[in-house]
Every structure is written in structure tokens, then in C-alpha cells.
Amino acid sequence: MPIDWTNCPSDPMAWFDLRGALLQVLYTPWLMSLLLGALVASLLVLLPLRWWSRGLIVISAVFLVNSVYSPLATELLSGWLASQLPEPVEGLEDAPLPVSVLIGRGPKIAKATSMEAARLLKQHMVQAIYISGDLRSTAKLVVDAGAPAGRVAGDSCARTTWENAILTSVWMQSHHPGAPVILITDPWQLPRASQAFARQGLNVLPLAVSPRLSNHERNRLALRETAGTLLYRLQGRM
């Protein structure tokens, strides 16, 4: 039985392009320092301060920006993100067997989450696997790890975590109504994704999985998810 996969056009939406550009700015320390330094300097022109005071404030602002790319900042941001996880779901004793859900996060994380999803399926801890917003090759990873193709489904349509939640909810209602979701993704995205999925009426059991990552990769994920979490709060999605 083949993998049940929904393909969508690969052309990115305008918002997706804008989001990528903004994230690239966030990931580039010298560019962030330059932009913030210019902004602070422009604002200080309006204040009656001595030149050395203005210079000190600009230097301090640039130093503060650069500190968010440090290992200490990564740990602090990671801890704050972990605190955003929703309360554990209770009363699922009589619920159907859960469904594992993976979210597109790039090849390194996809490999780790695929192996975990396949393990859960082989141990009869879940009844199916759904992959949202990723390439079909991720589904193949799951199958290669021992999951039957007929119990693996997914889409390449979702481009945001919110869309992951919406499309997964629609698929769950059609195929496994009432079943909880074991949401498997990296520990940085997990809090925001769990709350987004819960907003779609799904009972979410979060499970953090990630491969060995460099300090730089960990910092990028922490910064990305901190920005995403703040945005979702402003939008009322958390």
C-alpha cells in the first residue's frame, strides 16, 4: 500500500519569502548590530546628550545585541521556551491509540524525528504517522526505518506551524477522529507547536527529539522560536 501523500505547489508565498528574509537578518549578528546601532543613533539625535554619552549608549546597544548569540543566551532562551509547554493532557485512558505527527524542520531534525516515529509505530504505541509541511522523502525515511507505508501519510502544503496544525487537524478528523496526537519535533519548536495544535482541538502529547547540533544551530533555533513565540502571542495563537 503506497504512502498517502498530498503534494502542493512548491512556489513559496509572499509571506514565506518575507519571513525568510526577516529570519536571515535575525541570524546575522553584524547586520542586526548595524541596524540597531543606526536606529539607536537616530533616536539619540533627538535627545540633549553629550556626544560621548550617545556613543556609549550606541556601543552598549550593539554589545547587548551581540550577547544574544552567545551560548548563555541560547540556554536562557531555551529554558524560557521550555516553560511555554502546555499543561499535560489528562483523561485519555479511554481514547484511541495516538497518532504520531512530525513537522518539517530540515533534514537533520527530520531524520531524528522519523526514527522516533517509526520506533513508536513498531512498538504499537501509535496507530499511524502523519508528516506535515515536509518533503515526501521524510515519509520515505520513516518507511525505511520499518514503518509500513500504508500507515504513513502527510502533506507538503503547510508552510507555517499554524498551517501544520490546521492541516493535521483536518486529516485527523477524516482518518482518526478522537485520537490524541504525539507531536514529535525539536525541543525549541515543541512548545509553540503544541499550543498551536491544541488550538485546533487536538489532544497533544509533546515529545522532544533532536540530533546532535552545533552551538550555532542551537542558537538559531532558540532565536527563531523565541521570535515565533512572541509573534504567536501577539496574534492570539498561544
Break the fold down into its secondary structure elements and pairings.
Elements: E1 4-6, H1 14-26, H2 29-44, H3 51-67, H4 71-82, E2 99-103, H5 107-122, E3 128-132, H6 136-144, E4 152-155, H7 161-175, E5 181-185, H8 190-199, E6 204-208, H9 215-234
Parallel strand pairs: 1-4, 2-3, 2-5, 3-4, 5-6
Helix pairs in contact: 2-3, 4-9, 5-6, 7-8
Name a few traits of the molecule.
238 residues, alpha/beta, Rossmann fold, six-stranded parallel β-sheet, 54% helix
Q: Number of domains in the coordinates? A: 2
Described by strand count, sense and barrel closure, the largest sheet is: 6 strands, parallel
CATH second-level architecture of the largest domain: 3-Layer(aba) Sandwich
CATH homologous superfamily descriptor of the largest domain: HUPs
Number of helices: 9
Question: Can you describe this structure?
Answer:
31% of the residues are buried. It is elongated, with a radius of gyration of 21 Å. The chain has 238 residues and is an alpha/beta fold. The chain has helices at residues 14-26, 29-44, 51-67, 71-82, 107-122, 136-144, 161-175, 190-199, 215-234, and strands spanning 4-6, 99-103, 128-132, 152-155, 181-185, 204-208. The model is unreliable at 11-15 (pLDDT under 50). The protein has 9 helices and 6 strands. The protein has 2 domains: 19-67, no CATH class; 96-214, Rossmann fold, CATH 3.40.50.
